[in-house]
Amino acid sequence: MSASVIQKGRGGDAPRLSGTQTLAVVRYHATLFGFSQRWLAPVLLYGIALAIDSAAGDKTSDAFAYSAAFLVPVAAWMTRSMLTVEPPESVAVVATLVGPARARLTALSAATGYALLCALIGAIVASVGGSGGNTSQVLAGLCTELICVLLGSAAGAVAAPPLVPETGWGVLLASLLALGLLITRFSPADLSIRALTAVSNGGALHFPVYALPFALVVAGLAWWLATFSATRHSV
After folding, report:
1. pTM > 0.85: yes or no
2. Cβ contacts of residue 85 below 8 Å, gap of 6+?
3. Within 10 Å of residue 20's Cβ, how many Cβ atoms?
4. Please, which of 99, 173, 221, 233 could form a disulfide with 162 given CB 3.0 to 4.6 Å?
């Protein structure tokens, strides 16, 4: 970050960051998370799930539904881990330099980037390993994966400090929220996954067009709550 940004941060007001500077903060969070190796456990979980499913030889629609379902807990796990990986001293420094709201939003963006990389791997495995797929099924599968990443990010965001400072309760809440967002009737994840699995049962693909906007609203509300709480906590 530039010296002018640091000086403004020291003055007490959150500096105005350019796009390049904002990306630098996102890169900082992503690098810190990468070196911490906290991404390893959720990635291994997702990799094992994909390996098991690819060995079963599912249809493309089922393969996408399966990989998307696992993205909800994986994204929640990554998001909460990302928001707790920084030492308290580093959290205070970054919040001073760029503002607590931007610090939290960039961390959430970095976590979502990691989850989207997992989704990309899942999409490749489902497209290559699945059978009988077509363009509409692949597009629906990609949209379902994006929905599940957004919902997982929402679960991890509201289960992290300062909303839930205790590690045990935070992990439990993130797990319960991820499960609820995955299996609750009329959840965007449930609706989109059901649309994909219906194809393997001989039905036509009727993907709910409102599922993605609904997931964006849920994720946006969760990010706002997490950011607001981080801002209030730093005051």
Report:
1. yes
2. 32, 33, 36, 38
3. 9
4. 233
In angstroms, the CA 108 to CA 2 distance is: 23
Query: How far is Cα 135 from Cα 182, in angstroms, rounded to an integer?
Result: 25
| CB contact burial 188-198 (16+ within 10 A = b; e otherwise) | bbbbbbbbbbb
Contact predicate 138/206, CB 8 Å? no
Q: Which helix (H) or strand (E) covers residue 146, if one does?
A: helix 135-158
Determine if the peptide bond prior to 188 is cis (ω within 30°).
no
- Nearest Cα to 174, choosing from 222, 212, 215, 115? 222
- At 76-104, the pLDDT tens digits run 999 999 999 998 888 888 888 888 999 99
Query: What are the tokens at 88?
Result: 């308290």
User: For residue 131, what are the β-bridge partners?
Assistant: 59
Helix crossing, 60-84 with 100-129: angle to 10°? 160
